[in-house]
Design goal:
With 329 residues, this protein is an alpha/beta fold. The protein has 11 helices and 12 strands. The strands form 2 sheets. It has an 8-stranded mixed β-sheet, sandwiched between helices. Strands 2-1-4-5 form a 4-stranded antiparallel β-sheet, covered by helices on one side. Helix 6 runs parallel beside helix 7. It is globular and about 70 Å long.
Length: 329
């Protein structure tokens, strides 16, 4: 099966100083790296879970895929076509097939428009107005288990779960092949989170749509994704089939994240692995493996050299000089 989305050695950089200021201060590299050398693929009907702490570059990666931030190097191929370097008009046909669910469900909806007008926007922007727009909007609302009568409401009249469902309906408007869901359960009650995830799973079964889910909720990734990736300071430290990453993790950072996950069993014995220190600033990125400042298995080589990719089999990859499957002397 041919991949739907291929990201190859993607690098995104942001300027921190203007050209004149950088020249006056003799700063030869006035940039920070938001994403560094990231590669992954998403196949049709597949869910890819992207996990990482706040500021790790997850949303920047999603925005780069959408063409919303400039890319320094690498390739982003959708259905075999490289999107890097395309102008806005050339990107428009691809954006019909890539939809984005924003992190803030209510804040992403215009407070001045009724729900039916919000759902009509994608059709107007892409000049794809259906023959009967009211019926199409009613169909979208029913798809996400909302009453068509809610089309007459404003966003402030919706609950958080209802606003998230409207966001799902808007993402589905043009029948995309890929939906990028940025923190789809953030700010929702646990019961509502389950409803949203079940809704997304049902729509995937019915429509065959692929998902790129960005989250820090490990339970979400574990239960809904086929492939998972762990991101830290703009890099993937480990990625592979979700079950392999969760049950046969190789990177100490992955192990620490999973150990911090709360269990619903009150009698469960927790063996949490504490990560000491703060996340380094992108303005002073550590040399070598960026995680070495907080890693319990750190050695001298970690401070000097970023590890090469290692393959554990079945597309399970990691970047670590001393993986968990090896003893450290």
């Amino acid at each position: 099966m041919e991949p739907l989305l291929e990201v190859d050695q993607l690098r995104v950089r942001f300027r921190t100083k203007g050209p004149v200021k950088a020249l006056l201060e003799k700063d030869e590299d006035p940039f920070i790296d938001g994403v560094m050398g990231v590669s992954f693929t998403i196949h049709p009907g597949q869910t890819f879970g992207l996990v990482g702490e706040s500021g790790s570059g997850k949303t920047t990666l999603a925005r780069a895929v959408m063409g919303l931030v400039p890319v320094q190097s690498g390739a982003i191929r959708f259905n075999g076509k490289n999107l890097i370097g395309l102008k806005r008009g050339q990107l428009k046909p691809f954006r019909r097939n890539i939809a984005l669910m924003f992190q803030d469900p209510a804040g992403s909806l215009s407070p001045r428009l009724k729900i039916r007008s919000i759902l009509a926007e994608p059709f107007r922007i892409h000049n794809m107005m259906p023959d009967n727009l009211p019926d199409e909007i009613a169909r979208l609302l029913k798809m996400v288990n909302l009453s068509p009568a809610m089309g007459d409401l404003y966003p402030h009249q919706l609950s958080g779960g209802q606003a998230r469902r409207v966001g799902v309906a808007r993402a589905l408007a043009l029948s995309p092949k890929l939906i990028i869901a940025d923190e789809p359960t953030a700010g929702l009650d646990v019961s509502v989170q389950g409803e949203i995830l079940n809704l997304m799973a049902r729509l995937q079964d019915e429509l065959g749509v692929s998902f790129l889910i960005i989250t820090h909720n490990l339970a979400v990734v574990r239960h809904v994704s086929d492939v998972a990736a762990i991101m830290y300071l703009g890099r993937f430290l480990e990625q592979g089939p979700t079950q392999a990453v969760f049950h046969h993790m190789q990177h100490p950072y992955t192990q620490a994240l999973l150990s911090a996950h709360a269990s619903p069993d009150p009698d469960a014995v927790h063996h949490r692995i504490a990560i000491t220190g703060e996340i380094p600033s992108l303005f002073s990125r550590p040399k070598g493996c960026e995680f070495h400042t907080r890693c319990p298995r750190v050695k001298d080589i970690c401070r000097e050299q970023f590890p090469k990719v290692a393959d554990r089999g079945k597309a399970h990859q990691y970047y670590c000089h001393f993986p968990l499957s090896e003893s450290v002397q």
